[in-house]
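Hi R.,

Quick one: here's the PA domain-containing protein sequence you asked about.
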Amino acid sequence: LQVTKPRYNVLLSYPDDNRPNRVTLRSADGTITIETEGVEHVYDPNQIQTVKPFLAYTPNGTVSSTKLFYANYGQIEDLKHLASVVGNASLQGSIIIMRYGRIFRGDKVMHAQYFGAAGAILYNDPADYAPFGTTPDQVYDQKWYMPPSGAQRGSAYTGNGDPLTPIYPSTDFMGRLEEKAAPFLPRIPAQPIGYGEAQVILKYLGGNEVPANWRGILSNVAYRYGGELLN
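And here's the predicted structure, written out as tokens:
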């Protein structure tokens, strides 16, 4: 049979291998308190290295805020509860950190965006990804559970097909949307990090402690709703 192979022109995201994405906490005078590595621990330097942690289809850019909130799994009911506790106005222009699980990563970012966040951070809590402990004998490379530096990559696009030609094939002759007009694309930057770094960041959260069903199992962390960052 004669087989044709059409050429597609799709919108794709690529990380910058020379400049990894980072999450930075600064003190009131601007000095860096914490800065994530933007890379994972290398267990075997002879293996082909994967791309550095990033979330495809989230926009390029740098955002900052004095407010950091924790929103559990980032489900819509989680954001509604958070807003009821801290107030909708407090969430405007904030950064929201959420743990992976329960729903698609892209929906977490979109929910944070809907509630006014300027950016989002996602991490894998050991409660869901290292349930037998985070010691070296219980995680990769000794077991298949997530190690402290492990970060989940993937698309944050919540639609189907190519974002600029929804429903239709992305061939050269197809009409295209402008990227800013494409539905289901996140409008806020978002970054995945490992729970080793999330453990340090979460210690800077203020506010009241969250209910038991919102708590992960990171040691020496009092899971709080957040607010203005503690110095």
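The mean pLDDT is 95.

Cheers,
M.
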